[in-house]
Amino acid sequence: MVLQTEFAQIKxxxxxxxxxxxxxxxxxxxxxLYVMSEGHIRHQFNKLKTKMIDKYENTLPLFASKSFSCLAxxxxxxxYGVGIDCVSAGEISVALKAGFDPKKIYFHGNNxxxxxxxxxxxxxxxxxxxxxxxxxELVQEIAQKLNVVVNGVVRITPGVYAGGHDYIRVGAKDxxxxxxxxxxxxLKAIKKVIDAPNINFDGIHCHVGSxxxxxxxxxxxxxxxxxxxxxxxxxxxxxxxxxxxxxxxGIAYTEADKPLEFxxxxxxxxxxxxxxxxxxxxxRPMVLxxxxxxxxxxxxxTLYTVGSSKYIKxxxxxxxxxxxxxxxxxxxxxxxxxxxxxxxxxxxxxxxxVTVAGKNCESGDILIKDIMLQDSQPGDILAxxxxxxxxxxMSSNYNQLPKPAVVFTYEGKSREVIRRQTFDDxxxxxxxxxx
Amino acid sequence: MVLQTEFAQIKxxxxxxxxxxxxxxxxxxxxxLYVMSEGHIRHQFNKLKTKMIDKYENTLPLFASKSFSCLAxxxxxxxYGVGIDCVSAGEISVALKAGFDPKKIYFHGNNxxxxxxxxxxxxxxxxxxxxxxxxxELVQEIAQKLNVVVNGVVRITPGVYAGGHDYIRVGAKDxxxxxxxxxxxxLKAIKKVIDAPNINFDGIHCHVGSxxxxxxxxxxxxxxxxxxxxxxxxxxxxxxxxxxxxxxxGIAYTEADKPLEFxxxxxxxxxxxxxxxxxxxxxRPMVLxxxxxxxxxxxxxTLYTVGSSKYIKxxxxxxxxxxxxxxxxxxxxxxxxxxxxxxxxxxxxxxxxVTVAGKNCESGDILIKDIMLQDSQPGDILAxxxxxxxxxxMSSNYNQLPKPAVVFTYEGKSREVIRRQTFDDxxxxxxxxxx
Lengths: 435, 435
Description:
The structure is a homodimer.
Chain A: E1 8-11, E2 14-17, E3 20-21, H1 22-29, E4 33-37, H2 38-53, E5 59-64, H3 71-78, E6 83-86, H4 89-97, E7 105-107, H5 114-122, E8 127-130, H6 133-146, E9 150-157, E10 179-180, H7 185-195, E11 199-205, H8 216-236, E12 242-244, H9 262-279, E13 286-289, H10 293-296, E14 300-312, E15 316-321, H11 330-334, E16 340-342, E17 352-357, E18 366-373, E19 381-385, E20 405-410, E21 413-418
Parallel strand pairs in A: 4-20, 5-6, 5-13, 6-7, 7-8, 8-9, 9-10, 9-11, 11-12, 12-13, 15-17
Antiparallel strand pairs in A: 1-2, 2-3, 4-14, 14-15, 14-19, 16-19, 17-18, 20-21
Helix pairs in contact in A: 2-9, 5-6, 8-9
């Protein structure tokens, strides 16, 4: 078992997060509880700043906010000078409510709705990642109507596959995202963007995958994108302004994961891009990357209260907790693996092989299959690590379970950034209607 | 393609639901939109009434409300004299707000929290499905404190496996639910319930699986449960009051599914139970079943607006819609299959092999892989069938997509029973907090 963040510590048999005792958080805010170490989050955003923004001029890391979108995270992010990528008008709306600069918002998506494009453009968003031909027409039409010019970065599928579960694969040829590079589709798209009077063709984007553990994936993709950039120059006489290398920055969920360091990826792609453009006599474009999970994944620790248990002779021992697939769909959706400890028995031996079940009424609601844990009793607090990305953002009210609160911790203190839902919230959208 | 409900019709090239034109619903309420045929729902609840309650005395079908829980459905359900099963205090709270009789609520779950048990018992819920040893202690303690006596039906895993995706398998030996029957665990549990002064040992419960297409699963389980009932009589001298045969009543999602008729299952289990108890000289207990999907699954049709498309040479054609895994997690979670049509081109030939992608920023967000559809253009309305169960109830705000509205249709009219979320709703729970 590893804590997966230096901002968690074990002292006197107890787990602490940013020097706040886990059991105190559980008592104060209830369980299940999403705890996010603001210390860890700031440490990660600071890496984005120091290892990319400060180190290489004309670069911008974008926080991929689908991993964790709420007012509080955008307020922290903007302190570090990073941009964000948003995948819907809803995400943009939350970012704007948090005071995020619309000029630093990059709008993504395979099916941006007309209403979303209009919302974005009306609210000062100027950077779009252009995904498909229909979108070029829509953006042109709406930008013209609103009398604005937007920057369009064209998303190209590099045909490079890397990392993660099959569900989170992108970049391969068979994907709903972007324009294919295995024929001349991407060149037609770029031509169409160049010809659109209200879209400024601004560059190219690729996304190689998720949870990438091999830097070669970036090497291959960036070499290909340098070639594509020169091809664009060769055909259209345009030197691209922006090269967006996408996301895929992994984290460790368990000791089996060997994620790349952020700086390893950044240094690698900066060298390839810088040298590649230099060799071809072109000005190096602005370089962007899109880490999401990397910024917040290991910051998250979900606290649960242990409840019932079940010992099935010769088969399996279950312990159940007070959350489940409602607050963590990744276990069942991606067969994702996690580390965990009993937070109030953190220095006891991990002597029990158990399966941690959620409380949802569904056999598949298993949070962790087969983990060595401390001996646990009802009322003990289970801490599951690395739940900061794609947990709150994917949470549901299945089984009418209220969503947990989200609490940030920092330097010995805590604050609630998203409150726990109540039973009344479960019918907040219901209407007593008649025909 | 089949419509999967007789309450949907195709007229003049258009899909109608309860005689309401699908495109009119899309225009009036927006898309994506969960449309639920109240005609279909009433038809199904009426089957529960006529094929079970009216036909066999001392029986009670329970609507498994995790499939679709909201005020409106409980109000319809109660008109038919059925009970409901609830799997959380949240579900109970919604049912009670809808005016559902607490005496007809059966409380399920592998990890009922102390707070949930207290909530249920304080609000007049008297029937619990007892799942594990820890729960027996909790229920006894809380019932004693509240000075009430509750009915406890003991959930026993029959060791029979049937139907559905591996994730929705239950009843097998390796499950988080209930007491094992492959050793004497269930007898120890029954003894403990009998000895608990504030729990009235009321009977036994089994759940064989989900989406069961072979009546033999019920035959095996019920024969075993008749034997177990006699064993209970033999050992403890108690004739059980209730035998709950659980759920598993399937529906057709596509033409490949061959669900059992409700009456086939009911007639089969009633015959086995009646004859089995008669042969052993025991009074036949009250018989309960728990259909959920069966009541509401085929009633649901999700309407989407078609947006972008992508044609990847020699690989695949994608069309994208304005919803996705946020409103339908079953496609990615269970690899569930669906039928669909272009609602405003319903009589055009299904000449195009396409893959329907959702708009969530995730490669795995594919609603339907490889389906023959009518030629579609942006703005067309795609209708996906059989989305009434486990769709709204499992929906999320991933990508900060607002949840769709739910609309009921009936005899040519429509009404909104759950309103669409707004962008403001996306930050409704956010707190502007400081340390």
